[in-house]
Amino acid sequence: MELVRYRAGEAIRWLQTGAENIRKGATLRGKSVVKQAGVDQRTFGENVKTAAGALVDLGKSAYADMLHNQAQASEYVLQDDHFDIVKGASLKTIPYERVKAIQMRNDRAVLVLDKGDLTIKPVAHIVAGRMRVPVGWTRNGTEVPFDLLIEELAARCHVEIQE
Questions:
Q1: Element holding 84 (H helix, E strand)
Q2: Residue that terminates a domain, selected from 71, 89, 112
Q3: 49 shares its domain with 109
Q4: Is residue 1 in some structural domain?
Q5: Which long-range contacts (CB under 8 A, 24 or more apart) does 152-158 make?
Q6: Are residues 158 and 84 in the same domain?
Q7: Distance CA 147, CA 132 (A)
Q8: Are residues 89 and 143 in the same domain?
Q9: What is the model's pLDDT at position 110?
Q10: Is residue 140 part of a domain?
């Protein structure tokens, strides 16, 4: 069998775009506190609230950047007799025969191993109104839905997915 790599889908780039937009807005809010003069001066309390809001936005952008970088550094590598979970610098190897069952719980897959279990969850979700859809994967360069990794693991482990 060929080596198969599952990485976070292209939609994950929106985290980086969102982080940049939040950071720009925070910078503008912070500058508005410094540039005030004359009759339009706001009260001290308003300036403190604006500055605090800018700091919160900078924290949100840093968190989004961290999530993006973490997603970019993570992948699942399916090989002939085992699969690897790569998260940054750590590597975890699990032989297929160790997987005894795969259970779906909402949008998470729990792989029941001979000793312990492992959860595979979406890196992010796309939310539109009340709809919440997990971001898919890039499988060897091709966009695929989130469930495909779980289905391929089930086939390679010779187990059925339990709902």
A1: strand 82-87
A2: 71
A3: no
A4: no
A5: 152/4, 152/78, 153/78, 153/83, 153/99, 153/102, 153/109, 153/111, 153/120, 154/102, 156/78, 156/83, 156/96, 157/96, 157/97, 157/99, 157/102, 157/111, 158/96
A6: yes
A7: 14
A8: yes
A9: 93
A10: yes
Assigned domain for 62 exists: yes
Beta-bridge mates of residue 75: 7, 86
HEC sequence for 109-150:
EEEEECCCEEEECCCCEEEECCEEEECCEEECCEEECCHHHH
* Total residue count of the chain as it appears in this document: 163
Q: Which helix (H) or strand (E) holds 105?
A: strand 99-105
Same domain, 38 and 99: no
Is the same domain home to 17 and 87? no
Using DSSP, state whether 108 is helix, strand or coil.
strand
Instruction: Print pLDDT tens along the chain (163 aa).
Output: 678 989 887 766 665 666 666 666 666 666 665 555 444 556 666 666 666 766 666 676 676 666 666 767 788 999 989 999 998 788 999 999 999 999 998 889 999 999 999 999 888 777 888 888 888 888 988 889 989 999 999 999 999 999 8
- The residue whose two tokens read 């090989």 is 79
Domain span including residue 17:
11-71
Alpha-carbon gap, residue 1 to 79, rounded angstroms: 7
Number of folded domains in the chain?
2
